[in-house]
């Protein structure tokens, strides 16, 4: 059976000095560091040495035949250098978009954020659905449909899908058989991280998680390979 890998990638860091929960709002682009993250991941997939390549490790060029991104600007900007590194046209899939969220456009927190206002509290009554946004099941359905189409498109090769933290994490949970309800602080899905889904034919056989730009994450050591 053909071996296919679907790389689910989260976009890079976004320029958001106001700390807005931007969700699907237009106009939110990568920060300077976010563009560096995107360039580094492109080198990672292309098998080129970068500042984050550990000493003594020889990068391997991946067999990527398609690169597809969410329509949101931050995802498109993250995917562009990856597509360019392989001489590919960047594809767009609406199903990879960020989850809908009632708090979109607002700051979110107890201090000066939305949670201090009682009018917002009814949106928090059901964390299992969740009541503040797009149902987890709906996110999984659209993401897995996009993944299946991408798997068929790149059968026997590899494909990169650039999406957003919550859809990627919830989709990973579905493949691993975990409950969708979770502590957002414990998601293993950092900026520009890659969750690689492996298929034998149409059968899911496992996944790997990696952080190609770990040294660029906020608070991380700047030592190459850290």
Sheet with the most strands, sense and barrel status: 6 strands, mixed
N to C succession of SSEs: EHEHEHEHEE
User: Whole-number average pLDDT?
Assistant: 87
Q: Which word captures the global form?
A: globular
Describe the structure.
It holds the Pfam family His_Phos_1. GO terms for molecular function: phosphatase activity. This is Broad specificity phosphatase PhoE. The chain is α/β, with parallel strands linked by helices and 226 residues long. It has one domain: Phosphoglycerate mutase-like (Rossmann fold). The protein has 4 helices and 6 strands, in the order E-H-E-H-E-H-E-H-E-E. Strands 3-2-4-1-5-6 form a 6-stranded mixed sheet, sandwiched between helices. Helix 2 (73-85) links the parallel strand 2 and strand 3 (91-92). It is globular. Residues 221-226 have low confidence and may be disordered.
What's the layout of helices and strands?
Elements: E1 3-10, H1 32-46, E2 64-69, H2 73-85, E3 91-92, H3 136-153, E4 158-163, H4 165-176, E5 194-200, E6 203-210
Parallel strand pairs: 1-4, 2-3, 2-4
Antiparallel strand pairs: 1-5, 5-6
Helix pairs in contact: 1-2, 3-4
Protein name: Broad specificity phosphatase PhoE
GO molecular function, one term: phosphatase activity
Organism: Flavimobilis soli
Key attributes of the depicted protein:
26% helix; alpha/beta; Rossmann fold; 6-stranded mixed sheet; 226 residues
Provide a concise account of the structure shown.
The protein is of the alpha/beta class. It is 26% helix and 16% strand.
